[in-house]
Amino acid sequence: MDGKRLNLHLVSDATGDTLNAVARAVTAQFEGADIHLHRWSLIRSRLQLHRVLEGIEAERGPVLSSLVDEALRAELAQACERLGLRLLHMLDPVFKLLADELGTPVRATPGRQYVLDADYFRRIDAMHYVLSHDDGQAMRGLAEADVILVGVSRSSKTPTSFYLANRGIKAANIPLVPSLAVPEVLDNPRCPVVGLFIDAAPLIEIRRHRLRLLGTVETAETAFQRDRENYIDEETVEAELLWARRLCAARGWPTVNVTRRSIEETAAAVLKMMESWHDRRAAAATTAPRAGA
Fold first, then answer.
1. From the CA atom positions of the chain, what is the Rg in Å?
2. What pLDDT sits at residue 121?
3. Which of 179, 182, 184, 241 is nearest to 207 (CA)?
4. 215-237 b/e with 16+ CB inside 10 Å = b?
5. Are 19 and 12 in contact (CB under 8 A)?
6. With 0-12 CB in 10 A as exposed, 13-18 as middle and 19+ as buried, what is 75?
7. What tens digit of pLDDT does each residue of 121-167 get?
8. Cα distance between residue 244 and residue 108, in whole Å
9. Which of 20, 113, 157, 168 is deepest in the core (most CB within 10 A)?
10. pLDDT (tens digit, 9 = 90+) per residue, 250-261?
11. DSSP track, 69-89
12. What residues does 35 pair with on adjacent strands?
Protein backbone atom coordinates (compact mmCIF):
# COMPACT_ATOMS: atom_id res chain seq x y z
CA MET A 1 0.00 0.00 0.00
CA ASP A 2 1.15 3.59 -0.61
CA GLY A 3 0.39 4.71 2.94
CA LYS A 4 -2.55 6.91 1.90
CA ARG A 5 -4.93 7.56 4.79
CA LEU A 6 -8.57 6.80 4.07
CA ASN A 7 -11.40 8.04 6.27
CA LEU A 8 -14.43 5.74 6.08
CA HIS A 9 -17.63 7.03 7.67
CA LEU A 10 -20.29 4.60 8.91
CA VAL A 11 -23.68 6.30 9.37
CA SER A 12 -26.48 4.31 11.00
CA ASP A 13 -29.86 5.03 12.55
CA ALA A 14 -29.45 2.07 14.93
CA THR A 15 -26.48 0.56 16.77
CA GLY A 16 -24.29 0.40 13.68
CA ASP A 17 -23.50 -3.28 14.20
CA THR A 18 -24.33 -4.14 10.59
CA LEU A 19 -22.04 -1.50 9.13
CA ASN A 20 -19.29 -2.32 11.62
CA ALA A 21 -19.41 -5.99 10.62
CA VAL A 22 -19.27 -5.14 6.91
CA ALA A 23 -16.44 -2.65 7.44
CA ARG A 24 -14.39 -5.14 9.46
CA ALA A 25 -14.89 -7.87 6.88
CA VAL A 26 -13.93 -5.65 3.95
CA THR A 27 -11.05 -3.66 5.45
CA ALA A 28 -9.44 -6.89 6.67
CA GLN A 29 -8.82 -7.73 3.00
CA PHE A 30 -6.70 -4.59 2.49
CA GLU A 31 -3.60 -5.54 4.45
CA GLY A 32 -1.48 -2.55 5.47
CA ALA A 33 -4.09 0.00 4.38
CA ASP A 34 -4.40 3.07 6.62
CA ILE A 35 -8.19 3.07 7.00
CA HIS A 36 -9.75 5.08 9.81
CA LEU A 37 -13.35 4.21 10.68
CA HIS A 38 -15.64 6.98 11.91
CA ARG A 39 -18.75 5.49 13.49
CA TRP A 40 -21.96 7.54 13.68
CA SER A 41 -24.80 5.59 15.31
CA LEU A 42 -28.39 6.28 16.37
CA ILE A 43 -28.75 9.10 13.82
CA ARG A 44 -32.49 9.73 13.72
CA SER A 45 -32.94 13.50 13.47
CA ARG A 46 -31.73 16.34 11.26
CA LEU A 47 -29.82 17.87 14.18
CA GLN A 48 -27.93 14.61 14.74
CA LEU A 49 -27.25 14.32 11.00
CA HIS A 50 -25.88 17.86 10.84
CA ARG A 51 -23.28 16.93 13.48
CA VAL A 52 -22.37 13.91 11.37
CA LEU A 53 -21.98 16.09 8.29
CA GLU A 54 -19.67 18.44 10.18
CA GLY A 55 -17.53 15.44 11.10
CA ILE A 56 -17.52 14.14 7.52
CA GLU A 57 -16.49 17.54 6.19
CA ALA A 58 -13.67 17.79 8.74
CA GLU A 59 -12.36 14.27 7.95
CA ARG A 60 -13.37 13.76 4.34
CA GLY A 61 -13.86 10.25 3.03
CA PRO A 62 -16.43 7.87 1.53
CA VAL A 63 -19.62 7.13 3.44
CA LEU A 64 -21.39 3.84 4.11
CA SER A 65 -24.96 4.32 5.29
CA SER A 66 -27.75 2.16 6.65
CA LEU A 67 -30.22 5.03 7.14
CA VAL A 68 -33.80 4.19 6.17
CA ASP A 69 -35.50 7.56 6.73
CA GLU A 70 -35.96 9.07 3.27
CA ALA A 71 -35.49 12.69 4.38
CA LEU A 72 -32.23 11.94 6.17
CA ARG A 73 -30.99 9.83 3.26
CA ALA A 74 -31.70 12.67 0.83
CA GLU A 75 -29.90 15.25 2.97
CA LEU A 76 -26.90 12.94 3.40
CA ALA A 77 -26.78 12.35 -0.36
CA GLN A 78 -26.89 16.09 -1.09
CA ALA A 79 -24.07 16.76 1.38
CA CYS A 80 -21.89 14.01 -0.07
CA GLU A 81 -22.48 15.29 -3.61
CA ARG A 82 -21.54 18.81 -2.52
CA LEU A 83 -18.35 17.54 -0.88
CA GLY A 84 -17.50 15.28 -3.80
CA LEU A 85 -17.63 12.14 -1.62
CA ARG A 86 -18.90 8.69 -2.58
CA LEU A 87 -21.95 7.41 -0.72
CA LEU A 88 -23.22 3.82 -0.58
CA HIS A 89 -26.49 2.81 1.10
CA MET A 90 -25.53 -0.71 2.18
CA LEU A 91 -29.03 -2.13 2.67
CA ASP A 92 -30.61 -0.95 -0.60
CA PRO A 93 -29.72 -4.00 -2.76
CA VAL A 94 -31.15 -6.36 -0.12
CA PHE A 95 -34.26 -4.20 0.33
CA LYS A 96 -34.85 -4.20 -3.42
CA LEU A 97 -34.34 -7.95 -3.75
CA LEU A 98 -36.82 -8.79 -0.98
CA ALA A 99 -39.34 -6.14 -2.07
CA ASP A 100 -39.30 -7.54 -5.61
CA GLU A 101 -39.64 -11.13 -4.42
CA LEU A 102 -42.37 -10.42 -1.84
CA GLY A 103 -44.18 -7.72 -3.78
CA THR A 104 -44.25 -5.70 -0.58
CA PRO A 105 -42.80 -2.23 0.03
CA VAL A 106 -40.12 -1.67 2.66
CA ARG A 107 -41.24 -0.28 6.04
CA ALA A 108 -38.68 2.44 6.70
CA THR A 109 -38.59 2.17 10.49
CA PRO A 110 -35.20 2.92 12.11
CA GLY A 111 -33.97 0.27 14.57
CA ARG A 112 -36.88 -2.05 13.81
CA GLN A 113 -34.62 -5.11 14.31
CA TYR A 114 -34.11 -4.14 17.96
CA VAL A 115 -37.71 -4.22 19.17
CA LEU A 116 -38.36 -5.88 22.54
CA ASP A 117 -39.89 -9.03 21.09
CA ALA A 118 -39.73 -12.70 22.03
CA ASP A 119 -36.34 -13.06 20.35
CA TYR A 120 -34.92 -10.23 22.45
CA PHE A 121 -36.08 -11.78 25.72
CA ARG A 122 -34.84 -15.20 24.59
CA ARG A 123 -31.35 -13.71 24.23
CA ILE A 124 -31.55 -12.11 27.67
CA ASP A 125 -32.67 -15.43 29.15
CA ALA A 126 -29.78 -17.20 27.41
CA MET A 127 -27.31 -14.67 28.83
CA HIS A 128 -28.58 -15.30 32.37
CA TYR A 129 -28.32 -19.03 31.72
CA VAL A 130 -24.67 -18.79 30.66
CA LEU A 131 -23.84 -16.75 33.77
CA SER A 132 -25.29 -19.38 36.07
CA HIS A 133 -23.89 -22.39 34.17
CA ASP A 134 -20.35 -21.23 33.50
CA ASP A 135 -17.39 -23.52 34.28
CA GLY A 136 -19.46 -26.47 35.45
CA GLN A 137 -21.84 -24.59 37.75
CA ALA A 138 -25.45 -25.58 38.44
CA MET A 139 -25.34 -29.09 36.98
CA ARG A 140 -29.04 -29.65 37.69
CA GLY A 141 -29.99 -27.02 35.15
CA LEU A 142 -28.13 -28.66 32.26
CA ALA A 143 -31.36 -30.28 31.10
CA GLU A 144 -32.34 -26.82 29.80
CA ALA A 145 -29.13 -26.36 27.80
CA ASP A 146 -29.20 -26.06 24.01
CA VAL A 147 -25.55 -27.09 23.84
CA ILE A 148 -22.80 -28.10 26.28
CA LEU A 149 -19.24 -27.01 25.56
CA VAL A 150 -16.45 -29.06 27.10
CA GLY A 151 -12.70 -28.60 27.05
CA VAL A 152 -9.59 -28.14 29.14
CA SER A 153 -9.05 -24.94 31.10
CA ARG A 154 -8.62 -21.78 28.98
CA SER A 155 -9.94 -23.23 25.73
CA SER A 156 -12.41 -20.39 25.00
CA LYS A 157 -15.45 -22.14 26.47
CA THR A 158 -16.75 -19.09 28.36
CA PRO A 159 -16.41 -16.41 25.62
CA THR A 160 -17.93 -18.79 23.07
CA SER A 161 -20.84 -19.46 25.44
CA PHE A 162 -21.53 -15.74 25.79
CA TYR A 163 -21.36 -15.20 22.05
CA LEU A 164 -23.88 -18.02 21.54
CA ALA A 165 -26.11 -16.49 24.23
CA ASN A 166 -26.30 -13.34 22.15
CA ARG A 167 -27.81 -15.56 19.46
CA GLY A 168 -30.39 -16.86 21.95
CA ILE A 169 -28.54 -20.16 22.57
CA LYS A 170 -28.39 -21.51 26.13
CA ALA A 171 -24.80 -22.75 26.30
CA ALA A 172 -23.41 -24.44 29.40
CA ASN A 173 -19.71 -25.19 29.64
CA ILE A 174 -17.91 -27.84 31.66
CA PRO A 175 -14.12 -28.09 32.19
CA LEU A 176 -12.41 -31.39 31.43
CA VAL A 177 -9.85 -32.18 34.13
CA PRO A 178 -7.89 -35.47 34.08
CA SER A 179 -7.77 -35.64 37.88
CA LEU A 180 -11.55 -35.27 38.21
CA ALA A 181 -14.33 -37.66 37.22
CA VAL A 182 -16.35 -36.66 34.18
CA PRO A 183 -19.71 -35.32 35.43
CA GLU A 184 -22.49 -37.93 35.26
CA VAL A 185 -24.72 -35.51 33.36
CA LEU A 186 -22.46 -36.05 30.34
CA ASP A 187 -23.17 -39.80 30.33
CA ASN A 188 -26.52 -39.30 28.64
CA PRO A 189 -26.77 -35.65 27.51
CA ARG A 190 -30.09 -34.33 26.22
CA CYS A 191 -28.41 -31.81 23.91
CA PRO A 192 -25.33 -31.66 21.66
CA VAL A 193 -21.93 -31.75 23.37
CA VAL A 194 -19.02 -30.07 21.58
CA GLY A 195 -15.37 -30.17 22.62
CA LEU A 196 -13.21 -27.06 22.23
CA PHE A 197 -9.48 -27.55 21.81
CA ILE A 198 -6.39 -25.40 21.38
CA ASP A 199 -2.83 -26.28 20.47
CA ALA A 200 -0.45 -26.83 23.38
CA ALA A 201 1.93 -23.90 22.78
CA PRO A 202 -0.69 -21.11 22.67
CA LEU A 203 -2.59 -22.78 25.51
CA ILE A 204 0.49 -22.67 27.72
CA GLU A 205 1.04 -19.00 26.89
CA ILE A 206 -2.59 -18.18 27.71
CA ARG A 207 -2.29 -20.04 31.01
CA ARG A 208 0.97 -18.26 31.87
CA HIS A 209 -0.81 -14.95 31.29
CA ARG A 210 -3.69 -16.13 33.47
CA LEU A 211 -1.30 -17.02 36.29
CA ARG A 212 0.41 -13.64 36.03
CA LEU A 213 -2.97 -11.97 36.45
CA LEU A 214 -3.77 -14.13 39.44
CA GLY A 215 -0.38 -13.42 41.01
CA THR A 216 0.03 -15.28 44.27
CA VAL A 217 -3.71 -15.48 44.90
CA GLU A 218 -4.90 -19.09 44.97
CA THR A 219 -7.78 -19.80 42.62
CA ALA A 220 -10.47 -22.47 42.91
CA GLU A 221 -11.30 -22.39 39.17
CA THR A 222 -10.34 -26.05 38.84
CA ALA A 223 -8.36 -28.52 40.87
CA PHE A 224 -5.86 -28.68 38.05
CA GLN A 225 -5.04 -25.00 38.38
CA ARG A 226 -3.89 -25.42 41.96
CA ASP A 227 -0.78 -27.17 40.66
CA ARG A 228 0.81 -24.17 38.97
CA GLU A 229 3.80 -26.04 37.55
CA ASN A 230 1.73 -28.79 35.93
CA TYR A 231 -0.72 -26.19 34.67
CA ILE A 232 1.91 -24.79 32.29
CA ASP A 233 4.28 -27.74 31.95
CA GLU A 234 4.58 -28.65 28.25
CA GLU A 235 4.57 -32.42 28.70
CA THR A 236 1.69 -32.32 31.19
CA VAL A 237 -0.38 -30.00 29.00
CA GLU A 238 0.10 -32.20 25.94
CA ALA A 239 -0.96 -35.25 27.96
CA GLU A 240 -4.00 -33.34 29.23
CA LEU A 241 -5.03 -32.40 25.68
CA LEU A 242 -4.53 -35.97 24.45
CA TRP A 243 -6.69 -37.32 27.29
CA ALA A 244 -9.45 -34.81 26.52
CA ARG A 245 -9.37 -35.59 22.80
CA ARG A 246 -9.60 -39.31 23.44
CA LEU A 247 -12.53 -38.72 25.79
CA CYS A 248 -14.42 -36.73 23.15
CA ALA A 249 -13.65 -39.33 20.48
CA ALA A 250 -14.79 -42.20 22.71
CA ARG A 251 -18.10 -40.46 23.39
CA GLY A 252 -18.66 -39.33 19.83
CA TRP A 253 -18.52 -35.63 20.64
CA PRO A 254 -17.45 -33.42 17.72
CA THR A 255 -14.56 -31.04 18.37
CA VAL A 256 -13.43 -27.59 17.24
CA ASN A 257 -9.81 -26.45 17.25
CA VAL A 258 -9.99 -22.80 18.35
CA THR A 259 -6.26 -22.09 17.95
CA ARG A 260 -6.59 -19.90 14.86
CA ARG A 261 -10.30 -19.17 15.08
CA SER A 262 -12.03 -16.05 16.30
CA ILE A 263 -14.87 -16.42 18.81
CA GLU A 264 -17.30 -15.73 15.97
CA GLU A 265 -15.82 -18.52 13.83
CA THR A 266 -15.84 -20.95 16.75
CA ALA A 267 -19.49 -20.16 17.49
CA ALA A 268 -20.39 -20.65 13.81
CA ALA A 269 -18.75 -24.08 13.86
CA VAL A 270 -20.63 -25.00 17.04
CA LEU A 271 -23.94 -23.92 15.49
CA LYS A 272 -23.28 -26.18 12.48
CA MET A 273 -22.55 -29.11 14.78
CA MET A 274 -25.75 -28.43 16.72
CA GLU A 275 -27.72 -28.44 13.47
CA SER A 276 -26.13 -31.75 12.43
CA TRP A 277 -26.94 -33.28 15.82
CA HIS A 278 -30.61 -32.32 15.53
CA ASP A 279 -30.75 -33.54 11.91
CA ARG A 280 -29.42 -36.94 12.99
CA ARG A 281 -31.94 -37.14 15.83
CA ALA A 282 -34.79 -36.24 13.49
CA ALA A 283 -33.65 -38.81 10.92
CA ALA A 284 -33.37 -41.49 13.60
CA ALA A 285 -36.85 -40.68 14.87
CA THR A 286 -38.40 -41.08 11.40
CA THR A 287 -36.67 -44.41 10.72
CA ALA A 288 -37.21 -45.98 14.14
CA PRO A 289 -39.91 -48.71 14.13
CA ARG A 290 -43.08 -47.78 15.92
CA ALA A 291 -44.28 -49.85 18.87
CA GLY A 292 -46.60 -52.67 17.80
CA ALA A 293 -45.64 -52.36 14.15
1. 25
2. 83
3. 241
4. eeeeeeebebbeeeebbbeeebb
5. yes
6. middle
7. 888 999 999 999 999 888 888 989 999 999 999 999 999 999 999 99
8. 51
9. 157
10. 999 999 999 999
11. -HHHHHHHHHHHHHHT--EEE
12. 6
